[in-house]
Amino acid sequence: MFYGTAVWDPWLIVGQIICLQCSYYLTLGLFTMVFLGLRVPRLSLVYFFDYATLTTSTFTGWCVIASFLFSSLAGAVYMIFLVERARKCLDFSATLYIVHLFFCIMYGGWPSSMAWWVVNGTGLAVMALLAEYLCIKREQREIPMDRFNSRV
């Protein structure tokens, strides 16, 4: 990818947001299934979008919190391949969590739990900072020049 002047492509940005959001929710579902699979009788969208499930007073709540935090780590890795630019990681992370807030409001109302805000704020920070770090590391790799070496 050439990093010169950027061309404004709103369809690419929307596609990246949709891919990142879907990847995040698929990973969240996988981690929720791993952490809660044997603890609850039935998995549902309650664990994704209901702020009351993010609680520190039960072991199940801690499992949901772990699912969200591990999903934010995975989201940072997804951004290496979907976003590819360190300066865009904060924007895409914030967009992901704003869309998630919107879904939570539509599902169960305004989140009034302090644990929900702390977990999602921490997830946003972890995702943005780790994605920026990983993208910077990727951008700073040396460009292989093997095909230009002359054989003597």
Q: How much strand content do the residues show?
A: under 5%
Q: Helicity range of the residues?
A: 55-70%
User: How many helices?
Assistant: 5
What structural class results from the helix and strand content? mainly alpha
Give me the strand/helix succession. HHHHH
Largest sheet, in brief, is: none
The gyration radius over C-alpha positions equals 19 Å
Question: What is the molecular shape?
Answer: elongated
Pfam family, one: SYS1
Family: Belongs to the SYS1 family.
Membrane topology: Multi-pass membrane protein
Keywords: Golgi apparatus, Membrane, Protein transport, Transmembrane, Transmembrane helix, Transport
Per-chain topology:
Blueprint lengths: L9 H27 L9 H4 L9 H24 L6 H20 L5 H26 L13
Helix pairs in contact: 1-3, 3-5, 4-5
Membrane topology: Multi-pass membrane protein
Protein name: Protein SYS1 homolog
Subcellular location: Golgi apparatus membrane
